[in-house]
Design goal:
Chains A, B: Keywords: Electron transport, Heme, Iron, Metal-binding, Signal, Transport. Chains A, B: GO terms for molecular function: electron transfer activity; heme binding; iron ion binding. Two copies of one chain form a homodimer. Chain A has 154 residues and is mostly helical. Chain A has six helices and no strands.
Chain lengths: 154, 154
């Protein structure tokens, strides 16, 4: 039941936001590429902290940024037709994003859950727990990439 | 006194983060361009909400994203030598960023303060207050651009 409702929620979100409704395809692609790229920096910072000297402050800052971006409503940046277009670079989003609502809703929900779980433990300074949570969070990224992002050109 | 200390804090931050220490110039530029671009989307969403039908939920999401990014330690992305280089595009960062520590510290602190103030009132649904705060926040962006970013090529 939840899985069936999620795509509807995503679509409703995209359609109801006045700012997003006016977004051009290439703008939307640029904004989402920016979001994922900035999150990648923060993932890397958390990883580096679990592998070296750990700064709780930096982990908290990085995890909060990831969670806030994950919770910001990125779904509304997947405007209709944005499986084709150029933001900073050509998008690699597959058309399945716009047809497999149930599957997309599932990975999107997992991504948000794991991002929030990371933010919740960021201040503990427990390197092993942070590393484990980073693995779970990274798995949600990979899951979406495997299914909904075309491979990079060789 | 505070103005003299701030640049030291910024430099210390950049030097002490293990992840940032290994950042290449072009990576750092790409990450910061991503951060500012994603914040621009969220600024636009808040503006649209103050000018049309207001969604408290969307304003909160957007304001939280801006604040978390502002608080994430963007200063560490201004690695030495990154007034020259190409992230998504050629950087327009002026070399003054690396020489005017007191001035940069001041605009950075104001930006963080206004971003946090925006997040604090985001849930009120008070369009006039949100618009006024957006003006204050936008003024900190403009202040930095006017002083530390080269004009776009015609």
């Amino acid at each position: 039941m939840l899985r069936q409702l999620l795509p509807i929620a995503l679509i409703a979100c995209a359609a109801s936001t006045s700012a997003s409704a006016n977004l051009k395809v290439d703008e939307a692609i640029k904004y989402r590429q920016s979001a994922y790229t900035f999150m990648a920096w923060n993932m890397g910072r958390i990883r580096a902290n679990t592998e070296g000297e750990l700064s709780r402050d930096e982990v908290v800052k990085a995890a909060n940024a990831i969670a806030a971006i994950a919770n910001s409503g990125l779904g509304s940046l997947f405007v209709p037709g944005s499986d084709q277009g150029k933001g900073w670079i050509e998008t690699r989003a597959k058309s399945e994003i716009f047809t497999d609502g149930a599957g997309v809703g599932k990975v999107a929900m997992r991504f948000n859950q794991e991002a929030n779980a990371m933010a919740a433990i960021a201040g503990t300074g427990d390197a092993a727990a942070l590393k484990a949570q980073l693995g779970k969070l990274g798995a949600t990224c990979k899951s979406c990439h495997d299914n909904y992002r075309a491979k990079a050109a060789e």
